Amino acid sequence: MTAPVTARPTAWRSYSNWANRHRKWLFAAPAMIFTGLLIAVPLVWTIYLSLTDAEGSVRAPSDFVGLSNYLEVFSDFNRFWPAVGRTFIFTGGALAVELVLGMVIALLLWRPFRGERWVRVAILLPLVATPVAVGMMWRLIFDPNIGFANQLLGWFGIPDQPWLSGTDTALPTLIFVDIWQWTPMVVLILLAGLTSLSDEPDEAARIDGANSWQRFWYVTLPLLRSTVVVAIVLRGIDALKTFDILYATKGKGGGSFHEVETLNVYAYGLSFDYNDYGIASTVLILFFLLIIVLMWAVTYRRKANR
Amino acid sequence: MTAIVTNPPLSERKGLPAKRRRRRGVYPIVRVIALILIVLLFILPLVWMVIASLKNNVDIYDASKTIIFTPTLENYANVLSRNNYFVFIFNSFWVAFASTVLSLILGVPAAYAMSRFTMHKSALVVLLARIIPGVSLLVPWYFIFANLRLVGGFGVLILSHMFVALPLIVYIMISFFDSLPLELEEQAQVDGLTPIGAFLRTTLPLSVPGIATASILSFIFSWNNFMFALVLSGAHTKTLPVAIFNFVSYASIDWGSLMAASVVVTVPIMIIALFTQKYIVSGLTAGATKG
């Protein structure tokens, strides 16, 4: 190997030496600069816009209005606070069911069985399906007149439900769709955690006479804690930012009565349907802060518990 | 086992052996039934989508033809030829492919450095992209790229999808490199390779499974992405999810064609998933068990 290296011109060698000495940043910097620029420039701009009354077009003259957008948003009990509430209901509801159901399915899949491969493939399919197509699919199934959901209820003598078109039923229906699509993600994460556990603590508890529930609650679950936190963080971030299925099924403004308008849908509508950039940027900054605070709280609690 | 021998009263008092034997009898049956129900819950809606895509629009409205009907490929013909879906398929494929390849070129060396030099704070910069709501970046992006006359071209779309792909690739590859032993690299350096040479000739070939995992997931996420393409794509660069969304902006919905279009966008991804299941699972659960 030494022969070709010494045969190369000295300029190339000194360049190669320099590259090898600085390889740490030579490797890491391009990706960091790329994401840094794509985040930092827009973020600074969004913060600036949130302090102006920009409207209609970003290039249209706008005035610096200080924090008055923030005051306006905070006193907006018509759109902003209901959107905050819906974001929490959607995320909390979906996450809670996904964790419980995900844990049940992961435990069912834990020990090997015949046909395991096929069950795993079946569970993977909702996860990789395109969310917009998934939204359209459920829109047909939940259609009040021709949908299969009401047909199914009819077989059991239950009256038709409005599902996505009802003001009270639309959000729970979409939580169901989110659960259908993303429980598999929780299953996969928890299953990875379960398979990495050693059998010994479980075996010891069994010998000590613990029943299956006790063994799960006092042995398996505490050992699985960090995996559960990972599942909450990963799924929580995505659930807070859910956009595709909401916009694909209910369209602009989260339906005519804003019944599924979460913060993300609200901010999107303000930006691209109403071009109200000042208020939109304010909502986005608050939304971003909310996500950061929630994620910090979850990971901070994890560290505090150690 | 010794515990049972030295302490028989405990297990006897609770009547454990008998109880356990009984549960062993019932549990497998309960488990099989539960697993069948779960599979049906996840699969039936997708089957329903495919069935509806094979019905004409009269049969979709007819409750008596829920399962028994004459299948037709009319909807697919409508979607593929009259609505030019081949163009959207190509667009989706090209954007997903290009953004994945470019993100690999940026992301794999970065993940390598971040893993080998434990650059946690630097990794956080890249991973921040996973946390930030995409809408907060779209308004500035739109106006920057509109000024550069790039909106509506493939460049911006690929760039915005890289923003999704890159953090994913970095995240997966960091946990892959973390699990790769250092010895082989060190051996290669002893044999006279430079550190970069050792990375290119020993580590990179060993990373093929990790890179495959990262690429497959990145491709899927880009293929499925809706919001960025909704704002940044033009008439000629529209991707499949946006094309499907535009289907319903008219007064009445052509359900058959809408379902056929949904099948066209989801089936390629599902076929990929069937053959690369192992990689997808390892990618989605990367770093989950580290704690």
Automatic annotation (TrEMBL), chain B:
Transmembrane segment boundaries: 29-51, 85-112, 124-144, 150-174, 255-275
Membrane topology (UniProt): Multi-pass membrane protein
Cell compartments where the protein resides: Cell membrane
Assigned keywords, A-Z: Cell membrane, Membrane, Transmembrane, Transmembrane helix, Transport
Record-linked InterPro entries: BP-dep_ABC_trans_perm, MetI-like, MetI-like_sf
Entries under PROSITE patterns matching the protein: ABC_TM1
Predominant subcellular localization, coarse grouping: membrane
Gene Ontology cellular component terms for the protein in this record: plasma membrane
Domain ABC transmembrane type-1 span(s) in chain numbering: 89-276
BP GO annotations: transmembrane transport
Keyword set includes Transmembrane: yes
Keyword Cell membrane: yes
PANTHER family linked to this entry: INNER MEMBRANE ABC TRANSPORTER PERMEASE PROTEIN YCJP, MALTOSE TRANSPORT SYSTEM PERMEASE-RELATED
Family: Belongs to the binding-protein-dependent transport system permease family.
Descriptive protein name: Carbohydrate ABC transporter permease
Annotated organism of origin: Cryobacterium tepidiphilum
